[in-house]
Known about the structure:
Helix content is about 25%, strand content about 20%. The chain has helices spanning about 15-20, 35-40, 100-115, 130-140, 180-195, 275-284, and strands at about 25-30, 75-85, 85-90, 120-125, 145, 205-215, 250, 260-270. Helix 3 crosses helix 4 (about 130-140), helix 3 (about 100-115) packs across helix 5 (about 180-195) and helix 4 packs parallel to helix 6.
Amino acid sequence: MTLRPSVGPPPTNMHRRHLLQRSGALLASASATAFAGAAGLPTGFASPAALAPIRATPDRLIDISVCTRPFRPQGPRIEAEQRYGKTLVHNYGHGGSGWSLSWGSARLAVALAMSTREKHLAVVGCGAIGLTTARVAQRAGLRVRIYCKDRPPEVRSSAASGVWSPDSRICTARYATPEFTRQWEAMARSSFKTYQSLPGLPGEPVQWHDGYARSDVPFDQPASSPWRSVEPDYPDLEELLLDIRPQSLALSPGEHPFHAPFVRRYTQLVFNIASYSRMLLEDF
Protein backbone atom coordinates (compact mmCIF):
# COMPACT_ATOMS: atom_id res chain seq x y z
CA MET A 1 0.00 0.00 0.00
CA THR A 2 1.29 3.47 -0.83
CA LEU A 3 1.27 5.95 2.04
CA ARG A 4 -0.02 9.41 1.29
CA PRO A 5 2.46 12.21 1.90
CA SER A 6 1.84 14.10 5.12
CA VAL A 7 -0.11 17.33 4.77
CA GLY A 8 1.13 20.36 6.65
CA PRO A 9 2.41 23.93 6.48
CA PRO A 10 4.85 25.13 3.80
CA PRO A 11 7.93 22.89 3.85
CA THR A 12 11.10 23.88 5.60
CA ASN A 13 14.59 23.07 4.36
CA MET A 14 15.53 19.95 6.29
CA HIS A 15 18.83 18.72 4.91
CA ARG A 16 19.95 15.55 6.65
CA ARG A 17 23.27 17.06 7.65
CA HIS A 18 21.41 19.92 9.40
CA LEU A 19 19.20 17.52 11.30
CA LEU A 20 22.11 15.38 12.45
CA GLN A 21 23.97 18.42 13.72
CA ARG A 22 21.21 19.35 16.13
CA SER A 23 21.63 18.45 19.78
CA GLY A 24 19.60 15.36 20.55
CA ALA A 25 18.65 14.82 16.92
CA LEU A 26 16.74 11.65 16.16
CA LEU A 27 15.71 10.21 12.85
CA ALA A 28 13.19 7.42 13.27
CA SER A 29 11.53 5.72 10.32
CA ALA A 30 8.39 3.64 10.66
CA SER A 31 5.62 2.42 8.43
CA ALA A 32 2.46 4.17 9.50
CA THR A 33 -0.21 2.18 7.68
CA ALA A 34 -0.76 -0.43 10.39
CA PHE A 35 -0.72 2.24 13.10
CA ALA A 36 -3.32 4.31 11.29
CA GLY A 37 -5.65 1.37 10.79
CA ALA A 38 -5.44 0.31 14.42
CA ALA A 39 -6.04 3.81 15.78
CA GLY A 40 -8.73 4.82 13.33
CA LEU A 41 -6.59 7.68 12.05
CA PRO A 42 -6.20 8.83 8.45
CA THR A 43 -3.71 6.82 6.39
CA GLY A 44 -0.19 8.15 6.83
CA PHE A 45 -0.67 9.35 10.43
CA ALA A 46 0.87 7.30 13.20
CA SER A 47 -0.70 7.29 16.64
CA PRO A 48 1.82 8.58 19.25
CA ALA A 49 1.03 5.65 21.51
CA ALA A 50 1.69 3.17 18.71
CA LEU A 51 5.30 4.23 18.15
CA ALA A 52 7.52 1.68 19.86
CA PRO A 53 10.79 2.94 21.37
CA ILE A 54 13.86 2.16 19.27
CA ARG A 55 16.25 -0.20 21.06
CA ALA A 56 19.44 1.33 19.68
CA THR A 57 22.31 -0.15 21.67
CA PRO A 58 25.81 -1.27 20.59
CA ASP A 59 25.11 -4.90 21.41
CA ARG A 60 22.42 -4.99 18.70
CA LEU A 61 24.82 -4.12 15.85
CA ILE A 62 25.03 -6.95 13.33
CA ASP A 63 27.33 -5.38 10.73
CA ILE A 64 29.36 -2.31 9.86
CA SER A 65 29.67 -1.45 6.17
CA VAL A 66 32.11 1.01 4.63
CA CYS A 67 32.40 1.87 0.94
CA THR A 68 33.61 4.61 -1.35
CA ARG A 69 31.23 7.14 -2.91
CA PRO A 70 31.69 7.98 -6.62
CA PHE A 71 31.61 11.73 -6.03
CA ARG A 72 32.66 14.33 -8.59
CA PRO A 73 32.71 18.00 -7.52
CA GLN A 74 31.34 18.99 -10.94
CA GLY A 75 28.51 16.45 -10.77
CA PRO A 76 27.87 13.22 -12.69
CA ARG A 77 29.47 12.74 -16.08
CA ILE A 78 26.92 11.85 -18.75
CA GLU A 79 28.45 12.27 -22.17
CA ALA A 80 29.68 10.28 -25.19
CA GLU A 81 33.12 10.04 -26.74
CA GLN A 82 34.77 7.98 -29.48
CA ARG A 83 37.38 5.40 -28.44
CA TYR A 84 38.88 2.63 -30.60
CA GLY A 85 36.16 2.95 -33.20
CA LYS A 86 33.39 2.59 -30.60
CA THR A 87 31.10 5.06 -28.87
CA LEU A 88 31.75 5.16 -25.14
CA VAL A 89 28.93 6.68 -23.09
CA HIS A 90 29.89 7.83 -19.60
CA ASN A 91 27.35 7.69 -16.79
CA TYR A 92 29.02 7.90 -13.39
CA GLY A 93 29.90 10.14 -10.46
CA HIS A 94 26.46 10.68 -8.88
CA GLY A 95 27.69 11.13 -5.32
CA GLY A 96 24.99 10.26 -2.80
CA SER A 97 22.23 10.39 -5.41
CA GLY A 98 22.92 7.26 -7.46
CA TRP A 99 19.77 5.31 -6.61
CA SER A 100 17.66 8.47 -6.54
CA LEU A 101 18.67 9.77 -9.98
CA SER A 102 19.33 6.42 -11.65
CA TRP A 103 16.30 6.27 -13.96
CA GLY A 104 16.57 9.85 -15.17
CA SER A 105 20.32 9.54 -15.57
CA ALA A 106 19.91 6.27 -17.49
CA ARG A 107 17.49 7.87 -19.94
CA LEU A 108 20.01 10.58 -20.77
CA ALA A 109 22.79 8.03 -21.26
CA VAL A 110 20.67 5.67 -23.36
CA ALA A 111 19.57 8.57 -25.58
CA LEU A 112 23.24 9.18 -26.38
CA ALA A 113 23.69 5.49 -27.20
CA MET A 114 20.56 5.44 -29.38
CA SER A 115 21.87 8.36 -31.45
CA THR A 116 24.59 6.02 -32.81
CA ARG A 117 21.91 3.66 -34.25
CA GLU A 118 23.77 0.71 -32.74
CA LYS A 119 21.55 -2.16 -31.60
CA HIS A 120 23.94 -3.78 -29.12
CA LEU A 121 25.00 -2.16 -25.86
CA ALA A 122 27.56 -3.28 -23.28
CA VAL A 123 27.03 -1.94 -19.75
CA VAL A 124 29.98 -1.92 -17.38
CA GLY A 125 28.96 -2.32 -13.73
CA CYS A 126 26.01 -3.91 -11.95
CA GLY A 127 25.17 -1.34 -9.31
CA ALA A 128 22.38 1.24 -9.20
CA ILE A 129 23.44 3.04 -12.38
CA GLY A 130 24.42 -0.07 -14.35
CA LEU A 131 21.22 -1.99 -13.66
CA THR A 132 18.83 0.86 -14.41
CA THR A 133 20.76 1.86 -17.54
CA ALA A 134 20.54 -1.72 -18.77
CA ARG A 135 16.78 -1.83 -18.16
CA VAL A 136 16.14 1.50 -19.89
CA ALA A 137 18.20 0.31 -22.87
CA GLN A 138 16.24 -2.95 -23.05
CA ARG A 139 12.95 -1.05 -22.99
CA ALA A 140 14.29 1.05 -25.87
CA GLY A 141 14.79 -2.12 -27.92
CA LEU A 142 18.54 -2.57 -27.54
CA ARG A 143 20.26 -5.90 -26.87
CA VAL A 144 22.20 -5.46 -23.65
CA ARG A 145 24.96 -7.38 -21.91
CA ILE A 146 26.27 -6.39 -18.47
CA TYR A 147 29.97 -6.82 -17.68
CA CYS A 148 30.79 -6.66 -13.98
CA LYS A 149 33.19 -7.85 -11.34
CA ASP A 150 30.49 -8.28 -8.69
CA ARG A 151 26.73 -8.58 -8.49
CA PRO A 152 24.40 -7.34 -5.73
CA PRO A 153 24.74 -7.50 -2.80
CA GLU A 154 28.53 -7.35 -3.27
CA VAL A 155 28.43 -4.11 -5.29
CA ARG A 156 29.03 -0.79 -3.54
CA SER A 157 25.51 0.43 -4.30
CA SER A 158 24.23 -2.20 -1.88
CA ALA A 159 25.80 -0.25 1.00
CA ALA A 160 23.79 2.90 0.27
CA SER A 161 21.40 4.45 2.81
CA GLY A 162 18.33 3.66 0.73
CA VAL A 163 16.33 6.90 0.76
CA TRP A 164 15.24 9.09 -2.15
CA SER A 165 17.72 11.95 -1.88
CA PRO A 166 18.41 13.32 -5.39
CA ASP A 167 20.34 16.33 -4.04
CA SER A 168 22.65 14.41 -1.70
CA ARG A 169 26.27 15.37 -2.48
CA ILE A 170 25.48 15.61 -6.17
CA CYS A 171 28.07 18.36 -6.77
CA THR A 172 29.68 21.29 -4.98
CA ALA A 173 28.02 24.70 -4.97
CA ARG A 174 30.73 26.02 -7.27
CA TYR A 175 29.63 23.79 -10.14
CA ALA A 176 25.86 24.24 -9.80
CA THR A 177 25.52 26.16 -13.06
CA PRO A 178 22.10 26.91 -14.57
CA GLU A 179 22.74 24.22 -17.20
CA PHE A 180 23.62 21.62 -14.57
CA THR A 181 20.64 22.63 -12.44
CA ARG A 182 18.24 22.10 -15.35
CA GLN A 183 19.73 18.69 -16.07
CA TRP A 184 19.55 17.68 -12.42
CA GLU A 185 15.90 18.70 -12.14
CA ALA A 186 15.02 16.76 -15.29
CA MET A 187 16.76 13.63 -13.96
CA ALA A 188 15.12 13.97 -10.54
CA ARG A 189 11.60 14.37 -11.92
CA SER A 190 12.06 11.54 -14.41
CA SER A 191 13.29 9.19 -11.69
CA PHE A 192 10.55 10.21 -9.27
CA LYS A 193 7.89 9.45 -11.90
CA THR A 194 9.29 5.94 -12.34
CA TYR A 195 9.39 5.30 -8.59
CA GLN A 196 5.68 6.09 -8.33
CA SER A 197 4.99 2.86 -10.26
CA LEU A 198 6.94 0.65 -7.83
CA PRO A 199 5.26 0.91 -4.38
CA GLY A 200 3.07 -2.08 -3.62
CA LEU A 201 5.06 -4.58 -5.68
CA PRO A 202 6.02 -7.96 -4.12
CA GLY A 203 8.98 -7.62 -1.81
CA GLU A 204 8.23 -3.92 -1.30
CA PRO A 205 11.24 -2.67 -3.29
CA VAL A 206 10.13 0.95 -2.86
CA GLN A 207 7.77 2.28 -0.21
CA TRP A 208 6.65 5.54 1.38
CA HIS A 209 7.58 5.72 5.07
CA ASP A 210 7.02 8.29 7.79
CA GLY A 211 9.99 9.55 9.78
CA TYR A 212 10.52 11.95 12.68
CA ALA A 213 13.11 14.61 13.40
CA ARG A 214 13.49 16.04 16.88
CA SER A 215 15.54 18.99 18.09
CA ASP A 216 16.31 21.02 21.18
CA VAL A 217 16.10 24.28 19.18
CA PRO A 218 13.52 25.45 16.61
CA PHE A 219 14.13 24.04 13.14
CA ASP A 220 14.25 27.52 11.59
CA GLN A 221 17.18 28.51 13.82
CA PRO A 222 20.81 27.64 13.06
CA ALA A 223 22.05 24.70 15.09
CA SER A 224 25.42 24.47 16.76
CA SER A 225 27.53 21.53 15.63
CA PRO A 226 29.63 19.47 18.09
CA TRP A 227 32.12 18.91 15.28
CA ARG A 228 33.46 20.87 12.34
CA SER A 229 32.34 19.63 8.95
CA VAL A 230 35.15 18.89 6.54
CA GLU A 231 32.80 18.60 3.57
CA PRO A 232 32.41 21.32 0.92
CA ASP A 233 29.34 23.47 0.44
CA TYR A 234 26.59 21.83 -1.60
CA PRO A 235 23.88 23.67 -3.58
CA ASP A 236 20.31 23.86 -2.28
CA LEU A 237 18.57 22.09 -5.14
CA GLU A 238 15.62 20.63 -3.26
CA GLU A 239 13.67 23.88 -3.60
CA LEU A 240 13.16 23.02 -7.28
CA LEU A 241 11.10 19.97 -6.29
CA LEU A 242 8.79 21.45 -3.67
CA ASP A 243 5.74 20.49 -5.75
CA ILE A 244 6.56 16.77 -5.57
CA ARG A 245 8.40 16.52 -2.25
CA PRO A 246 6.07 15.73 0.67
CA GLN A 247 5.72 18.52 3.21
CA SER A 248 6.95 18.11 6.76
CA LEU A 249 4.61 18.76 9.65
CA ALA A 250 5.41 20.30 13.01
CA LEU A 251 3.96 18.26 15.89
CA SER A 252 2.81 19.56 19.26
CA PRO A 253 3.86 17.74 22.48
CA GLY A 254 0.62 15.75 22.59
CA GLU A 255 1.10 14.43 19.07
CA HIS A 256 4.33 12.49 19.60
CA PRO A 257 5.99 10.36 22.30
CA PHE A 258 9.45 11.96 22.12
CA HIS A 259 11.05 13.89 24.97
CA ALA A 260 12.04 16.86 22.83
CA PRO A 261 10.60 20.39 22.56
CA PHE A 262 10.57 20.43 18.74
CA VAL A 263 9.49 17.52 16.55
CA ARG A 264 8.57 17.31 12.87
CA ARG A 265 7.12 14.40 10.93
CA TYR A 266 8.11 13.89 7.32
CA THR A 267 7.39 11.31 4.63
CA GLN A 268 9.99 9.97 2.21
CA LEU A 269 10.58 7.26 -0.35
CA VAL A 270 12.66 4.41 1.03
CA PHE A 271 14.42 1.74 -1.04
CA ASN A 272 14.56 -1.83 0.20
CA ILE A 273 17.87 -2.18 -1.61
CA ALA A 274 18.11 -5.98 -1.32
CA SER A 275 14.62 -6.51 -2.72
CA TYR A 276 14.97 -3.70 -5.26
CA SER A 277 18.27 -5.07 -6.61
CA ARG A 278 16.80 -8.56 -6.96
CA MET A 279 13.84 -7.12 -8.86
CA LEU A 280 16.11 -5.28 -11.30
CA LEU A 281 18.27 -8.37 -11.85
CA GLU A 282 15.22 -10.54 -12.48
CA ASP A 283 13.71 -7.96 -14.83
CA PHE A 284 16.97 -7.80 -16.77
